Amino acid sequence: MITGKQRQELKKIAQEIKPTVMIGKEELTPNVISAIDDYLAVHELVKVQIQDGAILDPKETANEIAAEIGAEFVQAIGHKFVLYRAAADPDKRKIIL
Questions:
Q1: Burial level of 70, CB count in 10 A (0-12/13-18/19+)?
Q2: Bridge partner list, 82
Q3: What would the pLDDT profile of 22-56 be if each residue is shown by its tens digit?
Q4: Which of 10, 11, 19, 24 has the greatest count of CB atoms below 10 A from its CB?
Q5: Are the C-beta atoms of 79 and 58 separated by less than 8 Å?
Q6: How many CB atoms lie within 10 A of CB 47?
């Protein structure tokens, strides 16, 4: 579990990245979850955007995905949310908290 200070640092980093995974009108599918999981394995931090056609709550969706793939919820703003998961190998970590 990340601390409040670590969460603040991740929020700063997330401001500079663009959404890399989009959730559309098909909503939450196994392919979307797999894409987020794969992206986190490489980059550790992912910003996800829920398209206007989808009727998902960003915070609930983020927490559901985080629980399923072992990630940490960072924040949800509007139709976007950010998840974090440290790399399994400490030598490959890009974000040092």
A1: exposed
A2: 47, 75
A3: 998 888 899 999 999 999 999 999 999 999 888 89
A4: 10
A5: yes
A6: 21
Burial environment of residue 28 by CB neighbours within 10 A (0 to 12, 13 to 18, 19 or more):
middle
The 80-84 sheet, strands edge to edge: 21-23, 45-50, 80-84, 72-77
In the DSSP assignment, the letter for residue 47 is: E
The span from the CA of 94 to the CA of 80, in Å, is 22
Tokens coding 21 = 């995974």
